[in-house]
Write a structure and sequence with these properties.
Structural class: alpha/beta
CATH architecture of the largest domain: Alpha-Beta Barrel
Helix content: 40-55%
Number of strands: 14
Strand order of the largest sheet: 6-7-9-10-11-12-13-14
Largest sheet: 8 strands, mixed, barrel
Strand content: 15-25%
Distance between the termini: 51 Å
Number of helices: 17
Length: about 425
């Protein structure tokens, strides 16, 4: 049975990062897209029959041929040993997308390694269309992944994302019930990724990121289980768990990290509900945490779904003393006028642009522009996705306030996070 954990190993693969960035830029240009996850099937059988070297050569040849079918506006990236992300621009309907998918299949049938007995490659292709679907690059990739899983489940070569099919897939995998069990039994975890002040080099905060290791399926992508929680109403319990855990950890770390602020992501559906106010009040009271130490992160796109309600709820959140951060900035369509009025304290520049800003002048300009916009509205700025020292130095020159990314530290379980902070403070005074 196909498992939803297949996303996890490649999310930091260079090809995945490049694909995410290209898709984000295409969305900013309001392009029509057909986004595809292409997976080579039966690789294990190929390895067993012809050896790993021959199988790898066949897939390498397929990749080389794929790279020649697109135009300058298309994206073709390899994200694992057997999986590819392909984005075709200017595709407006299913018929056009189906033709593109069939073209990919023909390429798979032309692959050659000089071994006469090698069979044609078999593919699963998951397709999602924009603008008919979401306008966030990571969400589009998630939907394409679901479509690919659906193709495997039905033994089809090509499958388009359909909400009904996705729900059926989740039902068959039993993930809704498994998620409830994880909530009830405490199997969910919150990992913490440090956030440092670029100017002082001190740890000033962390982002709490939920993780779920399911006994049968292994690690489940947060994008998948959070989507399930939203569709089933479990998102309230999930958010309560995240906020309660963040406050409990801050209470435990009070002696060593008395000023640490922890950020928790809030989904669009929950930010439009006043229940979030009760969740915040209860958690901060139970764990004796000043609300000033909690940061609520909401994506840029969520700001435009229900502007009046979102504005009112965010105003109440800030009235409690909590901070509000606009996450994934640069991938959405919020107008500057609305950004001027939104009750927020912080802006986070999406990793899609930060990770490649020194190599791509377009990404650099987006980062520079975002910092200038934030400063003009008196917002502090966090750059996420920092991978190297050179990027950190350049961000400091541009006036960015805070750094988050693998160059500083990856997300860590709570006990490892404490050890990292202890070592970091010792090494940096």
């Amino acid at each position: 049975m196909a498992t939803p954990s297949t996303q996890v190993p490649y999310v930091r693969h260079e090809g995945f990062v490049r694909a995410s960035r290209s898709i984000a830029r295409a969305l900013l240009q309001h392009q029509d897209l057909a986004l595809m996850i292409v997976q080579v099937r039966d690789v294990e059988k190929l390895c067993a029959s012809f050896g790993h070297c021959q199988a790898a050569a066949l897939i390498d040849d397929f990749h080389a041929r794929l790279s020649r079918i697109g135009n300058a506006m298309d994206t073709i990236e390899r994200i694992s040993d057997r999986k590819f992300v392909i984005s075709f621009s200017g595709v407006r309907n299913r018929g056009h997308a189906t033709l593109a998918a069939r073209k990919i299949e023909r390429v798979a049938q032309q692959a050659d390694t000089g071994h006469d007995a090698m069979p044609d490659l078999r593919l699963n292709i998951g397709v999602v269309l924009h603008p008919k679907s979401d306008s966030d690059p990571y969400e589009l990739l998630r939907l394409a992944e679901i479509a690919s899983l659906d193709a495997r489940r039905n033994n089809d070569s090509v499958s388009f994302y359909e909400e009904q099919s996705a729900q059926q897939l989740f039902d068959e995998l039993g993930l809704q019930q498994r998620l409830q069990h994880a909530l009830d039994s405490g199997d969910l975890e919150v990992h913490f990724q440090p956030k440092t002040c670029i100017r002082s080099n001190k740890i000033v905060g962390a982002e709490g990121l939920m993780r779920w290791f399911e006994p049968e399926y292994g690690p489940i992508s947060p994008e998948i289980f959070i989507n399930i929680a939203e569709s089933t109403g479990q998102i309230i319990e999930l958010t309560q768990f995240a906020v309660q855990t963040a406050c409990r950890r801050m209470n435990e770390w009070a002696e060593m990290l008395p000023e640490l602020r922890v950020a928790v992501n809030i989904t669009p559906s929950f930010i439009n509900s006043t229940e979030i106010i009760d969740v915040l009040q209860n958690a901060t009271k139970i764990w004796n945490i000043c609300p000033d130490r909690l940061i609520l992160e909401i994506t840029e796109n969520a700001l435009i779904d229900d502007r009046e309600t979102t504005h009112n709820v965010l105003t109440q959140i800030r009235a409690l003393g909590c901070h509000v951060s606009i996450d994934d900035f640069g991938t959405g369509y919020s107008s500057l006028a609305y950004l001027r009025d939104i009750p927020a304290d912080e802006l986070k520049i999406d990793r899609t642009f930060v990770s490649n800003m020194l190599k791509d002048s377009g990404d650099y300009k987006i980062v520079d522009h975002a910092i200038r916009i934030a400063k003009s509205f008196s917002l502090s700025v966090v750059a996420e996705g920092i991978e190297d020292k050179e990027t950190l130095i350049e961000l400091q020159k541009l006036g960015c306030d805070y750094a988050q990314g693998y160059y500083v530290c990856k997300p860590l379980p709570a006990n490892e996070f404490v050890n990292f902070c202890r070592d970091y403070v010792g090494a940096n005074g």
